[in-house]
């Protein structure tokens, strides 16, 4: 009643697994055509947004960590901004977990799709591990790239420093994985590089139900999915990222399974169907409730 907004969470079941999705924060930016469709005429990008009932001059980006309670493990996928984001209203993961009935101490595994700042910022709190009872799972190729001193003096130096501060201190408790490795029973990693050198997606399966946590494979539900070949400013290898988008979402569309995209409209879960040379995002409704 003091006017403080409550943390936004969404919970649903996938087979016997319980998912909790937390909105870590949002960011509103100008000129979407400078981020998405950077190889297109800006008017083409604006027209597609307008045709889909969205503003042509602004876009909202959300950040969505997810918790998977398997009954034997409590697995956190990505961690949001942490303390560094709270000055601008982000970093809400801890409050969201509390609202869902969990604490940081309950988390037994933290698995990271990749090592960009909005995914690793919540790993440390006041100089100590935020999830003190957890072990960590990180893609080997991703870690090798960002932890390498060769990043110094390059555009990737800021990311390198963030990994040194947030990920390297946890290395002794980290399992480094590659394509096809298991994260936990029913959860398998798949290399989906392009957005970053070792970006991973995670397949989850329980009692015949499937869902893919796609991380940053697609970062906008219209501009990245309906036009998967359009370049995105934040993709490090833009050609590879576009090919990966098609590969991952073609698989999801073919198998007719759900996906959870870190930057999709909250609660960031839905399905895709083929449309107009790309994929149409279909948000979840009551599929998981009955």
UniProtKB/TrEMBL annotation:
Which InterPro entries does the UniProt entry name for this protein?
Answer: MBL_superfamily_lactonases, Metallo-B-lactamas, RibonucZ/Hydroxyglut_hydro
Instruction: From the UniProt record, list the coiled-coil ranges.
Output: none
Metallo-beta-lactamase domain: residues covered: 62-263
The record's listing under Gene3D superfamilies reads: Ribonuclease Z/Hydroxyacylglutathione hydrolase-like
Provide the alphabetized UniProt keywords: Hydrolase, Metal-binding, Zinc
- Keyword Hydrolase on this protein? yes
Sequence similarity: Belongs to the metallo-beta-lactamase superfamily.
Name of this protein: Glyoxylase-like metal-dependent hydrolase (Beta-lactamase superfamily II)
Q: What is the lineage of its organism?
A: Bacteria, Pseudomonadati, Pseudomonadota, Alphaproteobacteria, Hyphomicrobiales
